[in-house]
Every structure is written in structure tokens, then in C-alpha cells.
Amino acid sequence: MGTYNTDAQKAIITEESRSSIKNLGDTITMYPTASSVYWKGTKMRGAGKHEGEVLIKNGYFITKNKQIIGGHFIIDMSTIGVTDIPEHELIPRKNLNDHLKSSDFFDVAHFPIAVFDIITIKKSTQNRLRVSGNLTLKGITKTIEFDALYTDHVFSTVFTIDRFQWNIAYKGDIINKTLVDKDLELTIRIITK
């Protein structure tokens, strides 16, 4: 089975963890329209790729002593779409967007939102953070851990997740499931107020 070749870190994925964060502290809200989540996926053995965007509906970070300690973000899965098929190619663009929203992938009709709840944040350097949180996609919650940067009101990270952990796959046998590589790259940029 092929994997997507990228320099992006691989998020560590484990079973769902319980949060010990009490919502005590200040909140920093975000600018949803200025923030972004970009995705990139490849076809089997690098035969092609697609990339696109999904919008963050709303969210906030929790801070204590001016340090981020938690957060909560809601992603509007109905906005998932491809950006690498030109807008004038209406039919191919619509077909792929509909396919992404179908039960083969994100099943948006049944799971219209995804949620990311930050459990812990450890500061490793002045601007570098180690983030751990629960990601809920298609009703499945797993804990993911990754590195991120936070400078000048901008939280940013790039990492890959194994989409099979959230049952994001064609139905059928392993051949059908692996028509698209298992690694999904996410580039996240959150602008805070």
C-alpha cells in the first residue's frame, strides 16, 4: 500500500483521552474567515493528488498566565471542497466535492461537523508547542499529538493523519479502500483576536 510522500510530521494517534482542563482562564477567540484548514491527499502510489479546504465554523483557545492551555474548535464539514480543479471545470469539480461529502469519505449528511478539543499544550521553545487533543470525525474520537507554532496571534501546524482511523475510506475490500493513500495532510492556520 502506498503512502503519501511529505515532509509533514505524522500526528501520533491514540485512543480518546479524557481532558483534565478545567475551563478556568481567559479565552482567546479566533477569526474564522481569516483562519484556514487545507487538506491534501494522494491517489494510490502517488498516481495523482487532490487538495482543498474546509472552513472552521468557530473556536477559541483557553489561556492561563498568558500561555495557551486548551481550546475548542468546530469545523464545518459541509464546506469541504477541492481547490486544485479550476472553477470553470464545473462538472469534475462538483463530482469530486460531492464524492468527498458522500459516505465514501466524510458522510457530511450524518456528520456535518468535526470537533477538535485540546487536552494539553506543552511549550518546548519560545514559540513551539506540543499539542495533544481529541479529534472527532465521522462520530469517531481519537487523540492526536503534533507540534505547532504560535507567534503574533497565529497558530500554525502541518501534519498527516491516517484516515483509516476515522473510517474515511471507500466501502468494500482493501483494494477499494486503498485507491487513495491512507495519509491525509492537514495544514492549519488559526488567526486569533
Write the SSE topology.
Blueprint: E1 9-10, E2 12-15, E3 26-29, E4 36-42, E5 49-64, E6 67-82, H1 90-101, E7 113-123, E8 128-137, E9 140-151, E10 154-162, H2 174-177, E11 183-191
Parallel strand pairs: 1-10
Antiparallel strand pairs: 2-9, 3-5, 4-5, 4-11, 5-6, 6-7, 7-8, 8-9, 9-10, 10-11
List keywords for this structure.
mainly beta; about 190 residues; 2 helices
What does this entry look like structurally?
The chain has 193 residues and is mainly beta. Helix content is 8%, strand content 52%. The chain has 2 helices and 11 strands, in the order ββββββαββββαβ. The chain has an 8-stranded antiparallel beta barrel. The longest helix is centred in the middle third of the chain and has 12 residues, at 90-101. The N and C termini lie far apart (43 Å). The mean pLDDT is 88.
Compact summary:
Helices cover 8% and strands 52% of the residues. The protein is globular and about 50 Å long. It has 193 residues and is mainly beta.
Contiguous uncertain segments of 5+ residues:
none
Structural class: mainly beta
Q: What does the main sheet amount to?
A: 8 strands, antiparallel, barrel
Strand proportion, as a percent range, falls in over 45%
Principal-axis shape equals: globular
Q: If helices are DSSP runs of H or I spanning 4 or more residues, what is the number of helices?
A: 2
β-strand number: 11
**H/E element order:** EEEEEEHEEEEHE
Radius of gyration: 17 Å
What percent of the residues sit in helical stretches (DSSP H or I)?
Answer: under 10%
In order across it, which strands form the biggest sheet?
Answer: 4-5-6-7-8-9-10-11
Distance between the termini: 43 Å
Overall pLDDT confidence: 88
